[in-house]
Amino acid sequence: MGTDRGKQILLGVLVIALGVVAYRTFVTSPAPSASSNPARSGGPGGRGARSNAVTAPDVHLNALNGERPKPVGPERNLFRFREKPAPAPPPPARGTGPVEAPPPAPSGPPQPPPITLKFIGTVQADGGRTTFAVLTDGQGPPMSGKEGDTIAGRYRIIRIGVESVEMSYLDGRGRQTIRINTGS
User: How many domains does the chain have?
Assistant: First the structure.
């Protein structure tokens, strides 16, 4: 237990030392700026006189008076909009014959509308031997039924799973799997 206390004290001292170093590095001002009179900056005798000669950048004054490029004619107007030219048609694929039209859509009887019931969950009866699906249409009270039962006078329950129920219309059309509804 004594070594733990010693480690804690050593850690505290290191943190304080690190704080002092960080303070001196970031908070204190940088070295004093050069004096306006370089002859006196070094003290008596001019020992510390520095040669801090600052040279000006090269400026080409002749280039300022020289010839400038003239603006291009009235073809470019930033405030006028043009329509983009139509893209070139893609090149035809090589080695293929004429392009065949897609097959026509099946022209059978229209499909029935989707089943609008929501699957809420399951209830097991008879010690788990019979499973009932609980469904709702959002209008009235919940409805329930087992596999093969008719729901709402229009639908038949085909199969009941743990997270979904498979249903169809009474005539067998419009088979649909309805997943359990966990939302509102």
Answer: 1
